[in-house]
Specification:
Elements: E1 29-31, E2 40-45, E3 48-53, E4 62-73, H1 77-88, E5 93-94, E6 97-106, H2 108-114, H3 121-124, E7 130-132, H4 136-143, H5 146-149, E8 157-158, E9 162-169, H6 170-175, H7 185-192, H8 195-200, E10 211-214, H9 220-230, H10 240-250, E11 253-257, H11 260-266, E12 281-285, H12 286-293, E13 301-304, E14 312-313, E15 316-319, H13 327-340, H14 343-350, H15 386-400, E16 403-410, H16 426-439, E17 445-452, E18 462-470, E19 474-475, E20 478-479, H17 480-489, H18 499-513, E21 519-526, H19 538-548, E22 556-562, H20 568-577, E23 581-585, H21 588-599
Parallel strand pairs: 4-6, 4-7, 10-11, 16-17, 16-21, 21-22, 22-23
Antiparallel strand pairs: 1-6, 2-3, 5-6, 7-15, 8-15, 9-12, 9-13, 9-14, 17-18, 19-20
Helix pairs in contact: 2-4, 4-15, 9-15, 16-17, 16-21, 18-19, 19-20
Length: 604
């Protein structure tokens, strides 16, 4: 599964007191021996810190110790190490043989990517016999690969839980009515898209504040956020309407990071929110927010919950189906799992800010109500199946790719024809459609605007109206978006339709700015058929498009046909020659949606 992501922002590393991430890999922590007063001998062996406990001779287990290797999500590894040591002190055994647990701190995303045939013992160490990721989502990421799916438990047992929340700067939360009002994700994210709202709250300086997002490929909160934003109804699919709605969020994203620790490190609670703030909100696990609140920056952030059907990290205990997992290891793993669910252990995990598997708070001091942590949560949404999860993530990855678009608009005389059922001419519909579409483009969009028509006496078949470039950059003294809106508003309909020559010229220009790993497209909006005598024929155009297409950075042609005179058959042949599609816009709403989706590279 492809999990693309922009380069992370360059924040300093900050672990918030948690176990180190990959790159600062822990060695195995061997917790051997039996109960009583445990004597711990520490030695530095080959650069790995090894802890070995001595067996108490009062117990009857014997023979070589059977050790279960448990890969645990990095952020909670220290908690599970302590629990494993406590378990060892209870003298676990299988058929008279001593057993113990070896806890390894591993990023959930790393195990998901490498478990199965991709695991390299030289690079990755011993393959785990039990895996406790932060969320079942990572199990399903791995299960998208058949070799990994065969190794993973069908229904692992949850040992703890932590919901995904939006960490929001406290002053902003208070301005939105918190804690008097219970805020939810959608209204908070909507506030960032409405600068006027902050002005009404008395803080016009907050209009530039942005949201941070974490990497879907490396972060549990990032993976969960994709589902909350794209698959709002939890059906495992993304409709065009859902996809279009998610584009608004892209406009309020100010930074990307590989994990939320980078955003925590960038917070400065002593400084008020303002233009210099990096991000004012970002997704995270409730447990990680608690860890931050107990650190050097207490009170800086408050948790905002998604509302109905939240996504909850459930810390599943997954026993591997692997040759190294024999009957003894499986039995020992089952014993360790049962121990993790005991009241004593659940009380201990609660001190780390974790909830019980059924999302209840066991330690009110760790998750205090006055801090915004509700005692009860709505039932969590179901985890999507591996194939559905892969599909949603792939669409998100596509959305984040740079988009290079050359819009080619028909301004021939027929565009002044009224649109049946509306008070608009075709040109006015095009202007309305384009203006709405330009307003929803993501910051990753590069765009240029051409028009085509041949007025009587003119020798110019097509013309550049706004030069190609980043939507976030200026054109002269105004932003490119303002230049586009002004140019579209000033269009006038006149002349014949040199469709084929204009399409080829635009295609030739697009080949120069197209890039690998990007959505490269020409978007043709027209209401007519080719009317230019002596220019390219349809057959000649198709031949050139096919011959000149670049396989390393292909240019797609998307055609939107407006009105009954549009030559849909010809447009279909043109778009088909460039791996695109042709759409017939039967009403203004459909035209707007088609244009927006084309800008986002979804029309394939």
């Amino acid at each position: 599964m492809s999990l693309g992501w922009p380069d992370p922002i360059a924040y300093p590393h900050h672990s918030r007191g948690q176990a180190p991430s990959r790159g600062g890999r822990r060695g195995l922590l061997y917790l051997g021996g039996i109960a009583g007063a445990v004597v711990v001998a520490a030695a530095l062996v080959g650069g790995t810190f090894v802890v070995v406990s001595k067996a108490n001779t009062r117990h009857s287990c014997s023979g070589p110790v059977a050790s279960v290797t448990v890969a645990v999500a990095t952020d909670v590894a220290s908690a599970l190490e302590s629990v494993a040591q406590d378990w060892t002190a209870t003298a676990p055994s299988v058929n008279g043989r001593c057993v113990t647990a070896s806890v390894v701190a591993e990023d959930s995303s790393h195990v998901a990517a490498t478990v199965g045939r991709g695991w390299d013992t030289t690079r990755d160490g011993q393959q785990p016999q039990v895996w406790i990721p932060e969320s079942t989502l990572w199990l399903n990421v791995a299960k998208a690969r058949p070799d990994a799916a065969a190794m993973l438990s069908a229904k692992p047992v949850s040992i703890a839980s932590s919901p995904v929340v939006l960490a929001l700067r406290r002053p902003l939360a208070q301005a939105l009515g918190w804690p008097r009002a219970a805020l939810v994700w959608n209204e908070v994210l909507g506030a960032f898209a409405r600068p006027d709202l902050w002005a009404k709250a008395g803080h016009p300086d907050w209009a530039s504040l942005k949201v941070g997002l974490t990497n879907v490929a490396t972060s549990t909160s990032g993976l969960a956020s994709v589902l909350l934003l794209l698959d709002q109804d939890a059906k495992g699919t993304v409709s065009d309407a859902q996809f279009e709605a998610s584009l608004g969020l892209q406009q309020v994203v100010g930074a990307f990071a590989n994990n939320d620790s980078e955003f925590y490190a960038a917070q400065d609670p002593a400084a008020p929110p303002g233009p210099d703030s990096v991000v004012a909100a970002f997704p995270t696990l409730e447990r990680d927010l608690v860890a931050n609140e107990n650190g050097p920056q207490p009170g800086a952030l408050v948790p905002i919950y998604p509302g109905p059907n939240p996504i909850v990290a459930d810390f599943p205990f997954a026993v591997m189906n692997a040759p190294s997992v024999d009957a003894t290891v499986r039995d020992a793993a089952h014993q360790f799992q049962q121990y993790l669910l005991t009241s004593k252990v659940q009380d201990k995990l609660a001190t780390y800010g974790l909830r019980t598997p059924d999302q209840k708070i066991r330690d009110a001091a760790a998750l205090p109500a006055e801090g915004g942590f509700p005692a009860q949560l709505p039932p969590p949404r179901a985890t999507p199946a591996p194939a559905a999860l892969s599909s949603v993530v792939a669409q998100w990855s596509s959305l984040l790719l740079p988009t290079n678009v050359l819009a080619l608009l028909d301004t021939s005389g027929s565009m002044s024809t009224p649109v049946p059922g509306t008070k608009l001419t075709r040109l006015q519909l095009l202007q309305q459609t384009a203006a709405t579409g330009f307003g929803l483009m993501t910051p990753q969009t590069n765009l240029g605007l051409w028009t085509f028509a041949e007025p009587p006496g003119s020798t110019s078949e097509y013309r550049e109206v706004v030069p190609f470039g980043p939507i976030t950059a200026n054109v002269g003294a105004v932003t490119r978006k303002q230049a586009l809106l002004s140019a579209v508003g000033g269009l006038r309909a006149n002349g014949s339709t040199p469709l084929y020559d204009a399409v080829y010229a635009a295609f030739h220009a697009a080949l120069k700015f197209s890039q690998p790993n990007s959505n490269n497209a020409i978007m043709v909006i027209t209401d007519g058929a080719n009317e230019l005598n002596g220019g390219l024929t349809l057959a000649a155009l198709i031949t050139r498009l096919t011959k000149e297409q670049r396989t390393d950075k292909p240019v797609q042609i998307v055609c939107i046909a407006m009105g009954p005179q549009a030559d849909v058959a010809a447009l279909q042949k043109i778009s088909g020659a460039a791996n695109g599609r042709t759409f017939v816009a039967r009403n203004p709403a459909q035209a707007v949606q088609t244009l927006v989706l084309a800008f986002a590279g979804r029309l394939r």
